[in-house]
Amino acid sequence: MSLLDLAPVIPVVVIEDAETAVPLARALVAGGLPVIEVTLRTPAAREAIARIADEVPEATVGAGTIRTTDDISASVAAGARFLVSPGTTLSLVEALDSSGVPYLPGAATVSEVMALVERGIKELKFFPAEAAGGVPYLKAMAGPLPDVRFCPTGGIRVNTAPDYLALPNVGCVGGTWLTPADAMAAGDWARVEKLASEAAALR
User: Fold this and answer.
1) Which phi and psi angles does 37 have, rounded to 5°?
2) pLDDT at res. 100
3) How many CB atoms lie within 10 A of CB 110?
4) What residues in the chain have per-residue pLDDT under 70?
5) Phi-psi region for residue 37, left (φ > 0), alpha (ψ -120 to 50) or beta?
6) pLDDT confidence of residue 74
7) Lowest CB count within 10 Å: 14, 106, 118, 149, which one?
8) Annotated active-site positions, please?
9) Count of structural domains within the chain
10) Domain span holding position 43
């Protein structure tokens, strides 16, 4: 099954302390969001991916902010089951092709999308969604590119997510609102589970 069809929202999480990875993942899964993107923005990210992969088998954990071939190999070795990049270069997409796991390459313009479609890639990350034009932009792309589907990410909130999910070319959205910094710091996993439950009900 496509990554875009597993849940209406993919939590995009920044993990500062690998000790929080497992309880965080369990809270998100309990709330109905089994697909989790751990961004490679902290030194703890790869260990966090490994812990989730080892201890929360019901979660589909992936690595985000993929920018280099080293990011790809290290993430797959840690147990990432999918990869997400903020943008796409030729060398990066070739490495993603060779990774052996599903991936969502990032694109923000029609030309970038068309270049990926030429390679047979029709499921993409649209980033940064709000800054790049949001719902109106994606709606406009659906006309000339009806066979491409997106996971918009960047600036989306619980109140704007339904507008994206209503578009025929959007399979799911990426969201950072599910893991507020204060809830993460306090270990308030009940709050994270509640936010996940609300997000899971968006579709």
Assistant:
1) -100, 115
2) 95
3) 13
4) none
5) beta
6) 98
7) 118
8) 37, 125
9) 1
10) 3-200
Residue 139 to residue 180: CA distance in whole angstroms: 29
Assign 150 to helix, strand or coil.
strand
Can you list the positions of beta strands (E) in the chain? 9-13, 35-39, 60-64, 83-84, 103-104, 106-107, 123-126, 149-152, 173-175
- Identify residue 52 by its one-letter amino acid code: I
- The CATH number given to whatever domain includes residue 132 is 3.20.20.70
Task: Give the distance, in angstroms, between the CA of residue 8 and the centroid of all CA atoms in the same chain.
Answer: 11
Q: Which strands form 123-126's sheet, in the order they lie side by side?
A: 106-107, 123-126, 149-152
Our measurement of the distance from residue 155's CA atom to the centroid of its chain's CA atoms, rounded to an integer in Å, reads 13
Q: Are 123 and 106 in contact, with CB atoms under 8 Å apart?
A: no
pTM given for the model: 0.96
DSSP for residue 179: S
pLDDT at 203: 76
